[in-house]
Each structure stands twice: as C-alpha cells, then as structure tokens.
Amino acid sequence: xxxxxxxxxxxxxxxxxxxxxxxxxxPTVDVVATLKQIRGLDTAGCQxxxxxxxxxxxxxxxxxxxxxxxxxxxxxxxxxxALAVEAIGAGAHGLRINPGNIGSPTKLKEILRLAKERxxxxxIGINAGSLAKKTRRLRLGPAERMVHSALEQIKFFEDQGFRxxxxxxxxxxxxxxxxxxxxxxxxxxxxxxxxVTESGTLLSGAIKSALGIGHLLRKGIxxxxxVSLAADPLQEVIVARHILQALDRNRAGIELVACxxxxxxxxxxxxxxxxxxxxxIGWRPRRRIKVAIMGCExxxxxxxxxxxxxxxxxxxxxxIFRTGQLxxxxxxxxxxxxxxxxxxxxxxxS
Amino acid sequence: xxxxxxxxxxxxxxxxxxxxxxxxxxPTVDVVATLKQIRGLDTAGCQxxxxxxxxxxxxxxxxxxxxxxxxxxxxxxxxxxALAVEAIGAGAHGLRINPGNIGSPTKLKEILRLAKERxxxxxIGINAGSLAKKTRRLRLGPAERMVHSALEQIKFFEDQGFRxxxxxxxxxxxxxxxxxxxxxxxxxxxxxxxxVTESGTLLSGAIKSALGIGHLLRKGIxxxxxVSLAADPLQEVIVARHILQALDRNRAGIELVACxxxxxxxxxxxxxxxxxxxxxIGWRPRRRIKVAIMGCExxxxxxxxxxxxxxxxxxxxxxIFRTGQLxxxxxxxxxxxxxxxxxxxxxxxS
Lengths: 350, 350
Description:
By secondary structure, chain A is of the alpha/beta class. Chain A has 2 domains: about 5-245, TIM Barrel; about 255-350, Sulfite Reductase Hemoprotein, domain 1 (2-Layer Sandwich), CATH 3.30.413. The first copy, chain A, is built from 12 helices and 15 strands. In chain A, helix 1 (about 30-45) links the parallel strand 3 (about 20-25) and strand 4. In chain A, helix 8 runs parallel beside helix 9. Chain A is elongated. At the A-B interface, strand 4, helix 7, helix 8, helix 9 and strand 11 of A face strand 4, helix 7, helix 8, helix 9 and strand 11 of B.
C-alpha cells in the first residue's frame, strides 16, 4: 500500500482505485478553449487534468482555468522555479516538476516550503528524454538512470520534510518504462503515476500504453495513469478507460465483444458494430454492461448468451439474447437499433 | 522451447521468432477479392493467413486461393469434419479445428490420418464462446475449462500418433486469456498461437490484444500471434507489428516517438506527425529505425538525439538530428518533407 495523497478531491495511493489523468493541449493563455477541453475530458471520464504553464503570460490564464475547472488541476512547470511558486499561488491542486530542469536547490526549497504550507502534492516527473546532464553521464542502464534520478530527488524532498509525493518514470520505450517502475516500486512508499511517454499517435500509442501500463497494473504497480498520445486528449481518456476496463471485470462501463468476422459472416457486421459504438459513445453506466455483437453461428450464440445483452446474426435475422429472457428475433436491419434501445434501458437502470 | 512445426515455409516453435497471422474477411467463394486481401496482408507483414471454409461451395474457391496465395494458408473449419478432410486435399498448409464442434471421434481420426500423411499441422483452437456442452457443464473457472478441453483433445491427437499440433485458448476476456495460456504453457510441449478473441473494434481490440498478447510474450509464452479485430484485417497485422516492435528493440521497422503535445507546443504537431505517418506507411526497413518528432524544448532535443533521426520544433524552425551529424536547421513548414526524405534514405540503406 502506497502513501495516500490528494489532488483536490481525488485520492491517489492508499486504497483508492486507479485514477485517470490527461493533459490539455490548447494554448494555456486561451482560457475558453482550455476550459472547453477540460469539460470534454471530464465527461469522458478523466479525473485529474494537467495544464502546462510555459511562461509568465500563462499565469493569469492558469488562475482563471483553475477557478472554473470541473476537475482538479495540476500545474506542469519546467525550467523556471518561480513559475512553480506562482502556480501554487494561483490555486493549483498539484504540481508536476521535472528534476532534470527545474533549477537550483534553493529555488526548489522555496517551492517545497510553499507547497507544504498549502498541502499541495508534487509529482517528481522523471522523463528519459530530459534527465539532468550529470545523470545522463552515469554508467547505468536507461531504467536505472531514471530510478537514480528519482531517488536523489525523493531524498531532497524528504530532507525538507516534504512527503506528499507522487513519482513517474516515463520513457518512450515500453521495456525501460516497465523496468523503471518495477525498480522504484520496491524502493519508495509514494504512489506511482504510470505512463509511457511520447508513445506515438492514437493506435501505436494506445498499444504501447496498454503494454506498459497494463503490465504494471496487472502486477499491482501503479496508482494513477496517463496515456499520452499524439492525438486529441479525449482519446487518451478513452484508451485509459479501455485499459482499466479490460483488466478489471468490476470496473463500470460498456464492454463490447465483437467478432472479427471472416469468410463465414453473412452480414456487414463491421458497419453495424460501428453503428452501435457511435450510438453509445459517452454513455457511462454505473456498473459493467457486457454487450456482444456476433456475425455467425460459431461463437455467436455462446458469446451472446454470456453477455448482459448479445446480438447474434444469421443470414436474415438477428437474435437478441438477454439474461433470464427468451431470445428475441428481429429483422437484421433493425437489430442494432433495438440493441441500442435495450442497452440504454440497462444504462438507465444501472 | 516448444516443438517445431511448419505452416508452409513458416516455422513456429523451436527457435523461430514470433510470427504474425491474420484471417481473410471476404467471402471465400470470391476468389479474386480473397486473393487481393491476402496480397495486402502479405505486404503489411502478415506471414500466415487463415481462410474459412464455411460450406462445400467454398472448397473449389479455397483450392484456387491456396494455389495462388503468396502466404501459406490455414483452413478454418467448423461443424463439418468432411470439409476438413477436403481442405487438406485442396492443399491447405495447415488446419484449424475447434474441438467444441468438429463432430465424432471417428471423423476426427480420419482428419488426423490424412493430415499426418500430408504433414499438415493442426491447430486445436479452443474458444471460450464455443466449448462443447459437456465441457461447459464442468465446475471449473473459464480458463481451466479451456485448458481442460485442450488437454483432452491433445490426448486424443497423441493417441493417434499425431504431434504436429498448435494450441490456442481464446477468450474475449483478457484475464481469462492470460490465465489459460499460462496454464497450458506449463502442461504441453506444443507451440502456442496467441490471441484475445472478439476483442472489439480497432482501438479497444488493439488495447485488449496488447494487454493479453503483450503480457504473455513478455513472459516468454507464445510462438505466433493473431490480433482479431472487428476491422480491416490489414489493421490486425499493423497492430500485431506494433506489439512485437514495442516489446523487442531489435525487431525491424520504423519506430515513431512523438510527443503528445501540450499547452507548450507552438506548432501544429499532430497534423505533422500524421503527415509523416502517411508518408511512410508500408515502408519495411530491414533493421529498426527510430524516428522522433517533438514539439518543444522540454524533451525534444533529448528524444531527438536518442533517435536515428529526430525532429524537434521550436517556434519557427525545425532542428533535425542525425546520429553523428551536426543538427540541420530547416523551416518548420519544410521539416516533415525533409525528415521523410532522410528516413527514406535510411530505409534504402537498411
């Protein structure tokens, strides 16, 4: 069990469930666009949002964003310790700094003093791409180098009596990321923020994130996650939800089982599956609802019967299966609409 | 080390690298469309293709497909053992049957006799959604039930002196899939064909496949993989390649590291990353080439310097880094075109 910290109302570590984070990609000075993006992230299931403060000009905007954000806001600051100090003053619920570039110990002490006074947790966000020069010179492997940098920084924080810490050790390499988190997990009591950094665009990034974050979560490592994609941040949240849902059978959400189709399939299943997905996008049931859409008689009836609601196609018809009810036969062309209707009812009851 | 089998020229098990499979989704009777799909799969990096034989009418088509396919072809047969026998006669390089539905032991013996005569390996393809009734009635967990079914079938095959076996135990649940493969891996010497079945559409399916297949491969389990998606089969191969590439630093291919962008980014990085991806789609270098496209000065120069070729943007310019060369400064608008040109040269030299 890791130490418990709070970013606004969201608990991380302790016995809190793994939370989902993302980061805004709008210019921070554009308050309207940034708040719009944050609201979208909130609706998609994001629980904590990070906002970059690249310069002084962004500070007043950051203050207004924090004041109106539906999600707790973490300030992301590099290079300039004074900005971090001001971000705390502007109401940030958390701070992320990178030991590789935040500047002198004196400045860092000032950040820690103020963060402690305001009970603001700080993430020590190590990144393989921006280690301090002296760390890059160490004769260590890439994972060990990140761990070394984190431990050094943790010691500095602890020496100042600062313990509301969260750690991340991100690399764009999945194996290095996994190795680094496995090492640090053994060596510190602080909650871990998982992520594979700069993992690529939607598809390749989702795959790298699932490989890295998924492996660690299955080993019981990790308290909060951020999928970082070169894509709309909404997609980061959707990918994070898919990862958590696939690993935890009890996590609320619509789980779709859909057959890949083959030369045996007699209906245009792919377009029907997409039709279903488009209809339910953003639906957030309070429990897990498993929906199966299957194209033929091989695994169709079996999977459909195992789901909360299943639809199995034969040549001209769809059979809709619901737990504890007789199968319902519908015309193939009406089957998805009927399925959507029944799933909506389940979501409303959940 | 698992027993070595061959599907046409492709070795599975032994010390062979993990191979990539997919399945055609065109109607098998449409020979032209099916062959076109197979050629596309081949170009994308698929090594073995499976084709369903849903009925007698598909047999002559299957024979013509096998004769002209650039990839070895596995026949997928359900319900009708006679079709399996005929598929072997039609030149299939491998056979996939599902013990849950293939019919009587007498018929299966005939399949095994013929497959042995022709040296055709058979995959025992267990699927959680189509277990035999008597297996479904066993008081076992979902993973144990699949393993029980596989072991029973393996024994039957061995009793007939048939050992050119490959095993798969697929479920649409990631945890069940992992548990089943971990169990069977301990208990049989045959190569394993990994996959999470009916895993959903492109994104959710890629994530579930990365979680399941990735976890097993990292543990050294698995000899060949099939990503099954409710999507174009080309995407199955692309996802499979991403999984293998992310886990194995030595696997040939273009690895793209791209920053997720944030409020700090001053160029439209996402569209530039997509422009790069579109330009290199289908390029297959003979070694691994790591390309980084980064949006700012935080991790940009570090990641870019670590790549074979890196491009880091500042406000108006791009800096292109190449191993052992001075950085090259280009106008931001020309940067991607120049990057593509340099990567092409590396691919040609590889």
